[in-house]
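Task: sequence design from structure.
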């Protein structure tokens, strides 16, 4: 892809039933740009055809096209040989990489505004002076059915809506791009957000096991490596305790803790969640009435939820119930992706809030920005809808983990042993109701790592939500740390 020098024509629309054997080819557009900093870079935008070697009755059937994966690659012109390259993707499953692309990493940012001061339609784009591109080449990847990525004619998209197949596909995109661009000797980093953190660890494991490719670092933004820490279901008390510090932080943001410091509120909740509340949940009906009353009173003090609500839920409530309940008296529900956002629910009596005000607030700006940017500035044209956050990937298959938690922390343990220089950067948002910081910390605490491996982690906390880069202060801090991280600097604890 790096040797493209001009726009190349796109594939014409393929009609079902016509010329079924028609060859599918890459369709890249290449453009040159100059950032305000003076950095000269090239963008290569389009769909990369992935092929799979097939056999029939033991006979080679050749490499058959399976999917066309949309990527946007940013490469510095006349770069030094040891310039890092960062591969990035979001999660979902079902999310395109647009959020990290135009919200954090790329040279252009969506002009979305932030909570309380959102930019009105038709929105816009601005330069990103702290872009990771200043320190590393970037390759943004959209998995199957997201963005412009699709399976080829005759293939089933459902095949790739699964943990293993998705892992292998993303790993193959990285291997192929690295090979074609002669970047095997470049420092390589993977950055994922949300489910993308689970994907990043799994892909790093696949790259190492299948191709012998060792990555230098993993950037984990809003982390979930073990799904059992997040999923609310009968018989599992763990998520109820691990969400408690996040509930406290959200209540603090909405002014329910008076003039107390956020750090003090969160610390109190963490200590109670790890000790007394965890114990109380394991006791169930064995709690005496006095003990039960004490737990209710403590939970009210920490979360500011009504005591009657806490009693009715038997000390256990899912996040969607919390979102509906916290500001019910004000006629508002809080967001999940970013609980700083609020909105009037359609049903004021609803027991839970499945509609996320934060997603509603940011989808418009990011959609408008990406659909404009890809054509007007990157020069790529495609009449498919750009799928930003789609349900088309559901149901997502975790059959690999049948009968066990969806958990890749063991893969990360192994990678840290086999690759003794692998480093891990972790970003947390205190107001993130989707991947609470205390749940990620629980996973780190239960990993079998020596002191050297633990010293290769850096942890960064932000007063923001799941997409902490919506907050300009958090975004700048996040990018300073990421730029130091990919250039090999020890960016320190925050």
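Answer:
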């Amino acid at each position: 892809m790096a040797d493209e020098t001009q726009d190349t024509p796109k594939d014409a629309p393929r009609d079902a039933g016509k010329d079924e054997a028609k060859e599918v080819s890459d369709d890249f557009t290449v453009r040159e740009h100059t950032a305000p900093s003076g950095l000269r870079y090239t963008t290569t935008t389009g769909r990369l055809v992935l092929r799979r070697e097939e056999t029939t009755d033991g006979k080679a059937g050749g490499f058959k096209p399976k999917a066309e994966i949309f990527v946007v690659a940013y490469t510095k012109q006349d770069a030094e040989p040891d310039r890092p390259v960062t591969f990035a993707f979001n999660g979902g499953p079902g999310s395109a990489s647009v959020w990290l692309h135009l919200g954090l990493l790329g040279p252009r940012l969506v002009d979305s505004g932030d909570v309380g001061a959102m930019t009105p339609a038709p929105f816009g784009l601005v330069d990103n002076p702290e872009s990771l591109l200043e320190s590393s080449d970037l390759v943004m990847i959209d998995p199957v059915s997201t963005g412009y990525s699709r399976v080829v004619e005759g293939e089933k998209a459902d095949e790739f809506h699964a943990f293993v197949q998705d892992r292998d596909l993303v790993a193959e995109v990285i291997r192929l791009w690295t090979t074609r661009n002669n970047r095997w000797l470049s420092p390589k980093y993977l950055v994922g957000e949300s489910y993308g953190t689970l994907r990043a660890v799994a892909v790093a494991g696949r790259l190492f096991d299948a191709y012998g490719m060792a990555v230098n670092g993993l950037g984990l933004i809003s982390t979930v490596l073990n799904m059992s820490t997040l999923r609310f279901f009968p018989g599992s008390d763990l998520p109820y305790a691990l969400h408690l510090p996040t509930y406290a932080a959200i209540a603090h943001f909405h002014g329910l803790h008076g003039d107390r410091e956020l750090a003090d509120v969160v610390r109190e909740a963490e200590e109670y969640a790890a000790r007394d509340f965890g114990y109380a949940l394991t006791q169930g009906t064995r709690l005496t009435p006095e003990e039960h009353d004490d737990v209710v009173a403590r939970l009210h003090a920490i979360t500011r939820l009504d005591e009657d609500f806490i009693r009715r839920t038997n000390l256990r409530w899912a996040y969607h119930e919390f979102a509906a309940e916290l500001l019910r008296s004000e006629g508002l529900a809080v967001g999940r992706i970013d609980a700083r956002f609020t909105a009037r629910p359609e049903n004021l009596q609803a027991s839970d809030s499945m509609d996320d005000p934060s997603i509603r607030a940011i989808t418009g700006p990011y959609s408008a920005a990406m659909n404009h940017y890809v054509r007007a500035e990157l020069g790529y044209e495609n009449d498919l809808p750009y799928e930003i956050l789609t349900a088309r990937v559901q149901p997502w298959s975790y059959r690999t983990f049948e009968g066990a938690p969806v958990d890749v922390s063991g893969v990360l343990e192994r990678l840290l042993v086999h690759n003794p220089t692998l480093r891990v950067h972790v970003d947390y948002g205190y107001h993130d109701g989707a991947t609470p910081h205390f749940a990620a910390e629980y996973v780190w605490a239960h990993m079998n790592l020596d002191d050297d491996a633990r010293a290769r982690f850096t942890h960064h906390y932000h007063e923001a939500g799941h997409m902490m880069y919506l907050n300009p202060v958090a975004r700048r801090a996040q990018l300073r740390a990421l730029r130091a991280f990919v250039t090999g600097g020890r960016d320190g604890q925050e």
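The mean pLDDT is 92.
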